[in-house]
C-alpha cells in the first residue's frame, strides 16, 4: 500500500488577472512529494517556482486543478500550522531579540512562556545559534540571521519546511556552509522540505529530487531522482555522479528555454 503523499498537486493551473492581460503563472503542474523528501524547484526567473511554493503554503489560490497538503487543502494546512516558511530575506524584527523573533509564532499560537523558552532554546541549538537568544538581528551576520529565520520556521515543529531561495543573497562561502548545515538539520529532523533555488549546484547538492520548471507559464519539464548518498560532504560536487546530475538539470533548463523561444 502506497503512503499518502505529504504534498500532492494534480493538473494545477494559476492565472493572475491583470489590467493588461491574464498572466499564466502555472500550467498543468502535477507532482507528489512524500514524507521526508527534500525536493528542490529550479528554473529561470518568472517560471513559477515561488508561485508554486506559495500555493502549497496557501498564500496563492490556484485557478485550476487540485492541491493537498497533509491530505487537506493548503488553506486548512496553513491554519493547522502544518508548515514553516523561510523567505529570501530573514525578515527578523530589529526591535526584538533573536530569541523573541524565534518565539513570535509560538506567542501567536498561545504557547506558555516556559514552553516558548524550551522550544526557542532547542531550535536555536539545532541551527548552531545556542547562546545568541539575547542578541539583536543587527549584531548577527547575514548567514546567522538566516539561520535564525530557519529556527523560527522550526519552532512550532511543523513537519513541512518550505524555503524560498533562503541563501540566494549570501556569498558563496557562507552559502556552502549553510547548505551543509541544512542537510545535517534535515537528516536530524526528518522534515519534508520544498526548496526554491536558482543555483544548479545547490539543487543537486541538497535534494533527493530536483524539479526542473520551464519559463512562464510554469510547467514541470523534468523530475530528477538523485543518485547521491544521504551523507554528502561538499567535495561530492567533484564526483562523476554529481556532475552528471548537474548536466541533466542544465540540459532540462536549456530545453525549456528553447521550447519557449
TrEMBL record:
Q: Where is the ABC transporter domain?
A: 9-236
What Pfam families is this protein classified in?
A: ABC_tran
Q: Which family does it belong to?
A: Belongs to the ABC transporter superfamily.
Q: Give the PROSITE patterns listed for this entry.
A: ABC_TRANSPORTER_1, ABC_TRANSPORTER_2
UniProt-recorded Gene Ontology molecular function terms: ATP binding; ATP hydrolysis activity
Protein name stated in the entry: ABC transporter ATP-binding protein
Give TM segment ranges. Answer: none
Q: Does the keyword Transport apply?
A: yes
Q: Which CDD domains match?
A: ABC_NrtD_SsuB_transporters
Q: Which UniProt keywords apply?
A: ATP-binding, Nucleotide-binding, Transport
The species this protein belongs to is: Histidinibacterium aquaticum
Which PANTHER family does the annotation name? ALIPHATIC SULFONATES IMPORT ATP-BINDING PROTEIN SSUB (PTHR42788:SF13), TAURINE IMPORT ATP-BINDING PROTEIN-RELATED (PTHR42788)
Can you tell which superkingdom this protein's organism belongs to? Answer: Bacteria
Amino acid at each position: 500500500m502506497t503512503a499518502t503523499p505529504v504534498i500532492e498537486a494534480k493538473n494545477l493551473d494559476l492565472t493572475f488577472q491583470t489590467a493588461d492581460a491574464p498572466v499564466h503563472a502555472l500550467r498543468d503542474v502535477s507532482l507528489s512529494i512524500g514524507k521526508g523528501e527534500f525536493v528542490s524547484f529550479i528554473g529561470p526567473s518568472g517560471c513559477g517556482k515561488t508561485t508554486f511554493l506559495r500555493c502549497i503554503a496557501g498564500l496563492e489560490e490556484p485557478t485550476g486543478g487540485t492541491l493537498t497538503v497533509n491530505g487537506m487543502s493548503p488553506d486548512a494546512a496553513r491554519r493547522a500550522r502544518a508548515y514553516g516558511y523561510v523567505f529570501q530575506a530573514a525578515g527578523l524584527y530589529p526591535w526584538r531579540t533573536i530569541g523573541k523573533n524565534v518565539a513570535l509564532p509560538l506567542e501567536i499560537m498561545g504557547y506558555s512562556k516556559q514552553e516558548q523558552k524550551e522550544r526557542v532554546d532547542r531550535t536555536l541549538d539545532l541551527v548552531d545559534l545556542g547562546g545568541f537568544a539575547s542578541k539583536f538581528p543587527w549584531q548577527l551576520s547575514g548567514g546567522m540571521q538566516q539561520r535564525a529565520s530557519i529556527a523560527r520556521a522550526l519552532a512550532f515543529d511543523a513537519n513541512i519546511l518550505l524555503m524560498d531561495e533562503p541563501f540566494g543573497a549570501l556569498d558563496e562561502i557562507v552559502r556552502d556552509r549553510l547548505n551543509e548545515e541544512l542537510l545535517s538539520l534535515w537528516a536530524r529532523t526528518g522534515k519534508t522540505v520544498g526548496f526554491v533555488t536558482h543555483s544548479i549546484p545547490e539543487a543537486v547538492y541538497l535534494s533527493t529530487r530536483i524539479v526542473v520548471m520551464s519559463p512562464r507559464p510554469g510547467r514541470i519539464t523534468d523530475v530528477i531522482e538523485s543518485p547521491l548518498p544521504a551523507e554528502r560532504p561538499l567535495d561530492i560536487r567533484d564526483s562523476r555522479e554529481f556532475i552528471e546530475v548537474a548536466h541533466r538539470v542544465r540540459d532540462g533548463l536549456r530545453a525549456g528555454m528553447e521550447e519557449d523561444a
